[in-house]
Each structure stands twice: as structure tokens, then as C-alpha cells.
Amino acid sequence: MIAGIGVDVVDVQRFERAVSRTPRLLTRLFAQGEQGLPVRSLAARFAAKEALVKALGGDAGLGWPDLEVVSDPEGRPAFVSRGRLAGVLAARGVRRAHLSLTHDAGIACAFVVLDGSAS
């Protein structure tokens, strides 16, 4: 059963300007393991976080670094479900958060589908 769907797009150039103007955005928006990535990857991860918040129907008290995105060895993105995020997902009956990312033509896009328990 689908428990939520969210999508978000980010203008990569605008995102890069914001990070250049305010470098501490990196520590406010991203977990430590995300911070050294190229700007287009950071923009896609920011879109992923926004899409997840939309799929949840709000931030549920989560902070941006709580929503860490990683890639497996094949490059498939996923949210790290631990700490506060794990608690929110469990409380809402979400078994898995499916994530797709892309960036092309100066736009980063993320799509999230929350897979919920059948009830």
C-alpha cells in the first residue's frame, strides 16, 4: 500500500549560488557523509529531502541532517533509516521509502514513494 508520494525539483545553479553565499547551509542541510559531494548531487539530495517531507505530509519534527541520502555500490539512492527518521517512518507504518534521483539540464529532481503496511 502506498503511504505517501512526494516529488521535488531544484535549480542546480540557484542552489549553488545559495551555498556559495551561505556556506554553513552545507552543515544545516546535509549529514556529514553527504557534505563532500558535487553540487549537482547535493541539489538532488536536497530535492530528495523535500520530496520525503512532502510524502510524509510535513516534516514531523525531523531536521534536514536526519534525512541522509546514500548510494549503494551500484549507485541506487536510498534514505538512511535510523534515529528520528526511523521512528517517524515506523510510527506511520512505512516499511520502505523508495527514492529516485536525476539531474539534467541544470535541474535536479527527486521522487519518493513510501511503501506502507497493508491495513
Description:
With 119 residues, the chain is of the alpha+beta class. It contains four helices and five strands, in the order E-H-H-H-E-E-H-E-E. The chain has helices spanning 12-21, 25-29, 39-56, 83-91, and strands at 2-11, 69-71, 77-79, 94-104, 107-116. The N and C termini lie close together (8 Å). The mean pLDDT is 93.
**What is the structural class?**
alpha+beta
How far do the termini sit from each other? 8 Å
- What's the β-strand tally? 5
Report helical residue fraction: 25-40%
Mean pLDDT: 93
Total helix count? Answer: 4
Structure keywords:
single chain, 119 residues, alpha+beta, 3-stranded antiparallel beta sheet, two-stranded antiparallel ribbon, 31% strand
Walk me through the topology.
Elements: E1 2-11, H1 12-21, H2 25-29, H3 39-56, E2 69-71, E3 77-79, H4 83-91, E4 94-104, E5 107-116
Antiparallel strand pairs: 1-5, 2-3, 4-5
Could you give a short description of this structure?
It is built from four helices and five strands. By secondary structure, it is of the alpha+beta class.
